[in-house]
Structures are given as structure tokens and as C-alpha cells.
Design a protein that fits this description.
Strand 10 and strand 11 form a beta hairpin. Helix 1 packs parallel to helix 7 and helix 4 packs across helix 5. It contains eight helices and 16 strands. The longest helix has 24 residues. By secondary structure, the chain is α+β, with helices and mostly antiparallel strands. The structure holds adenosine-5'-triphosphate and magnesium ion.
Length: 321
């Protein structure tokens, strides 16, 4: 891992910059061959927790997330489950920027088919934790899906469940919704397709993750419909967009240490959330923007965890960057 300075945000001389919590997105000229609109998606080193972007970056995180996503994209594409939005991860394919800038972006960019993103986050849970655990304690169900009584935090569910959430604007929290509500937002046929695809990816991913000593407790996918040269949906089926199965979008647990009944040793944002919850308990933060600075040991511990996921899942990609 190259330990260059953190990239907090980018200001490339390209059109239509917009900023998500973690990624900066630009519009590129259409693909010269097909005329299809393309985006440049740059994963920064920003970290968000409780939907607030923290002032302290995690240097190299954007590269780690991108490499983990690319590793999974390759496996998902090989399995033929769903097309992927990625066109290229090579900065040489970004027109209109200089070579020094290209070098600084290596490993953290995706040139992608521009899609109309379905405004529903497709969450699959195989284990009980997070907002699912909160919901279960209050209702005995998650997003209206009844579960057996007596489950404890960290338990494996009888079978994976699909618990969609709305995609909210920056600054507000995503809300868990029932499947029926998701159908109202995105259409029943689309949601049934996305549910099936999400389960298929989760099944593939849990099997591979387990072979590398991880439990993939839950994860979140985003899908979109590719746009044509006029910016209308092409009519082609959904594509997997954004990132996939990263430590930002998933819970990774140490399989050998799994002990239901409490919090599990994890390789995701939980480490940061735990720290922030202590800050909240001390009365020094109320989970609204701006967030507090992170101390160096929390930055280092987060980086170590994100790094471990890449090293253990896709060591060849770790070596290359
Ligand atoms: N192929 C694609 N076409 C269009 N939009 C995409 C594509 N891939 C990802 N996106 C969008 O780009 C943004 C990525 O930025 P980031 O992950 O930082 O956003 P976020 O803050 O997590 O989510 P959001 O901004 O949607 O609330 C998301 O809004 C995502 O939906
Ligand atoms: Mg995102």
C-alpha cells in the first residue's frame, strides 16, 4: 500500500462535479464508440459514520475500497449474476487531466456507465446486528419480516433476509422500509429482480468470504439502469453500480472468533462507531454535522481493518497497489 497523502476531495478540470459522502463524481465525454454517457467516480479518503462525514480522513481508504470492489466485481461478473457499471479502472482512460493527477488517482477510480440509480438501497442480512438488531428488539421482526423469538445480537438468521432502505439526501439518515414500500418507490418487478440478484450476490460473497476466514454479516448494494446518449434509460436490465461488499457497505466479522451474544470483532466501520459512541456518551457530540476529529489510534485501527479485508480477500490486488 502506497502511503501517499490523504485525498480528502478532488477538484479535477472535468464537467459536473458532484460529491457524495465518500466519492467525487464527474461526467466524462460519452464513450467514443457507443455514445453512451460515462462517469468518473473517485473514491476519496473521507469517512462517514452515522451519515456524517468526519473531518479526519483515513489515508488510502479510497484505494482500499476501490480495490475490494473491483475484486468482487470480477467474481460477480464471472458468475454471470448481473452486469457491472465498470468500464475501466485505468486513469490513462481519463481525458483532460495531466499525468501527475492521473498517477495520484491510480487505484481509486472507476470509469462507469452512467445509470439512473434506483433510489432503494438493497440490504441483505445473514446475521443479526446494527439497525436490524435494534428493530428486532423492538418488534421481533426486521423491516416487517418476522423472526424466531430469542435470537441474540450476532446470531445467524435462519436464512438471509432482504431489508431495503431508502436512499436519503446528504445530511439525513437512510430509513429502513418494508419490501412493499420499496415496490411503491421503485416498482414491483424491479424490486423482485433486485431482491433475487442481491441474494445471489450475497450467497456467492458469503461463500468466498468464509473461505478467507470472514463472516459477511450483512451488506448493501445499489443498482441502476444504464442511460443512452440522450440520458434516457436504455431499457436494458439493472446493473450493479457504486461499490460492492466493502468495509463501508458491509459488516465483516472474524469467523474464528464468532460468538453470538454481543458485539463481534469486526473489519468495518464499527470500530469508528464504537469510538464515536464513547464521544457521544461523554456529551461531546450529538451525531449531527460537523463530526469530531478522530485520534491517530482510531485512524490507524480503521486503516488496519480495511487493509486486512483487501489482503485476505484479494491479496493480488493488495500487492499491485
Ligand atoms: N454508475 C453510476 N451511475 C450513476 N450514479 C452512480 C453510479 N455509481 C454510483 N453512483 C452514485 O454515485 C454516488 C457515490 O457517492 P457516495 O458513495 O459518496 O455517495 P453516498 O453519500 O454514499 O450516497 P448518496 O450521495 O447517494 O447519498 C452515489 O450517489 C451513487 O448512487
Ligand atoms: Mg455510497
Amino acid at each position: 500500500m502506497n502511503s501517499a497523502a490523504a485525498i480528502v476531495e478532488t477538484h479535477l478540470p472535468l464537467a459536473q462535479r458532484r460529491q457524495g459522502k465518500v466519492r467525487d463524481i464527474y461526467r466524462l465525454d460519452p464513450d467514443p464508440a457507443s455514445g453512451e454517457p460515462r462517469l468518473l467516480i473517485v473514491a476519496s479518503d473521507r469517512l462517514s459514520a452515522f451519515d456524517v462525514v468526519l473531518p479526519t480522513p483515513i489515508p488510502g481508504k479510497g484505494r482500499l475500497l476501490t480495490q475490494v470492489s473491483l475484486g468482487w466485481f470480477e467474481r460477480i461478473a464471472q458468475a454471470g449474476i448481473v452486469p457491472i457499471h465498470l468500464l475501466s479502472d485505468d486513469p490513462a482512460d481519463i481525458p483532460g487531466i495531466d499525468d501527475g493527477t492521473r498517477a495520484s488517482l491510480r487505484g481509486r477510480v472507476m470509469i462507469s456507465r452512467a445509470c439512473r440509480v434506483v433510489p432503494v438501497e438493497c440490504v441483505v442480512r445473514g446475521y443479526l446486528d446494527g439497525s436490524g438488531w435494534v428493530d428486532y428488539q423492538q418488534t421481533g421482526a426486521i423491516c416487517g419480516i418476522d423472526l424466531p423469538a430469542g435470537l441474540v445480537r450476532g446470531d445467524r438468521l435462519p436464512e438471509p433476509i432482504f431489508t431495503p432502505a431508502t436512499k436519503e439526501e446528504v445530511g439525513t439518515h437512510d430509513q429502513n422500509i418494508g419490501f412493499e414500500q420499496a415496490c411503491v418507490v421503485a416498482g414491483r418487478e424491479t424490486m423482485e429482480t433486485l431482491r433475487r440478484i442481491s441474494f445471489e450476490i450475497y450467497a456467492l460473497a458469503t461463500e468466498y468470504a468464509e473461505s478467507r476466514g470472514f463472516i459477511l454479516a450483512d451488506t448493501k448494494f445499489e443498482f441502476g439502469f444504464p442511460l443512452d446518449a440522450e440520458g434516457n434509460a436504455t431499457g436494458d436490465g439493472p446493473m450493479l453500480v457504486d461499490e460492492a461488499l466493502t468495509s463501508d457497505s458491509s459488516r465483516y466479522w472474524e469467523a474464528s472468533a464468532w460468538t453470538p451474544g454481543g458485539e463481534q470483532p469486526s473489519f468495518d466501520k464499527q470500530f469508528v462507531r464504537d469510538y464515536l459512541n464513547r464521544v457521544v456518551a461523554d456529551g461531546r457530540w450529538d451525531k449531527t454535522a460537523p463530526g469530531p476529529e478522530l485520534p491517530q489510534d482510531v485512524v490507524d485501527g480503521t486503516l488496519e481493518r480495511y487493509q486486512a479485508v483487501l489482503e485476505r480477500l484479494f491479496p493480488e490486488r493488495n500487492a499491485a497497489h
